[in-house]
Design a protein that fits this description.
The structure is a homodimer. Chain A has about 140 residues and is an all-alpha fold. Chain A contains six helices and two strands. Chain A binds a DNA duplex (30 and 30 nucleotides) through helix 2.
Chain lengths: ~140, ~140
DNA sequence: CCTAATTGCTCTAGTGACTAGAGGTTCAAG
DNA sequence: CTTGAACCTCTAGTCACTAGAGCAATTAGG
């Protein structure tokens, strides 16, 4: 039996966040001590590690809830789990592509500033004048 | 003089978002018609385009406010503007690096699922068992 | 000039995934 | 038995919007 603090130390998930996950239905309401404090079993530790991992991978609370529901039915086809992972992958790739465009543009903006005062600062001019951009966005 | 809808159409910023920016102090409170509707001058159109551009580049409202304050003092050294742009560039690069790690891992997870049912689904096992990961995170 | 459709107004509340704080209770070590 | 850390619940705040209610003003057509 782990206290909420134990769980937090073992998974790296902060204490209020664990309570939040419980509230959101990702963790089931655990047993309580006589004094009403949470006491978690090993299964809950593992589930929290799962949640942590999935969050690190950028899955939303909702996606994680779906996966947890899924994993409760070991007999179902895993196409859904596969789909969630693939969707996540697609969204990550999209975000990367978008950020790389920004990187390019910021690079140009941030390295070309030769002015001495704000009046002729390239950063501010570039932000004001879209036409200085390398490409559309 | 532009109505809020004109401004919205010209900049691509939604009407409620324009009001939100005003509330946040990014746009100054504009003149009003006799019937209390906002009437924007050209300067405000330009400022909104600036804001839009900066938001597209991922700058926070706070950073944008700083840049706007800065641009009001054309005589100041532009080191601050430069710093904001560089910080933004660094944060974008960080985000890209992080996402690329996720991409790698999701790729592995999403493409290796050969199981037919959730019981032996690689996606769910990989999320449960951190040790299946290619690298630390 | 009148009417209807569109656009505008303010205000409140909701989103996601937490985080912070108040004000109180329980637990474990010494 | 005391003390201080850890725990409890509840509310509110974060960021950058978005949605909706319930009205008022504007504009285009007839």
């Amino acid at each position: 039996m782990y206290s909420i603090g134990d769980l937090s130390r073992r998974t790296g998930v902060k204490v209020p966040t664990i309570r939040y996950y419980e509230q959101m239905g990702l963790l089931e309401a655990p047993e309580r001590s006589e004094g009403n404090q949470r006491r978690f079993a090993k299964a809950e530790l593992e589930r929290l590690a799962f949640i942590r991992h999935a969050r690190d991978l950028g899955l939303t609370i909702n996606s994680i809830r779906q996966l947890i529901d899924l994993s409760g039915h070991a007999d179902r086809p895993c196409a859904d789990a596969d789909r969630i992972a693939k969707e996540q992958l697609a969204s990550v790739r999209e975000r990367i592509a978008k950020l790389q465009k920004l990187e390019e543009e910021l690079e140009r903006i941030a390295t070309c500033c030769t002015g001495e005062t704000v009046g002729d600062c390239y950063v501010i001019r570039a932000l004001s004048d879209h036409s200085l951009c390398g490409h559309e966005h």
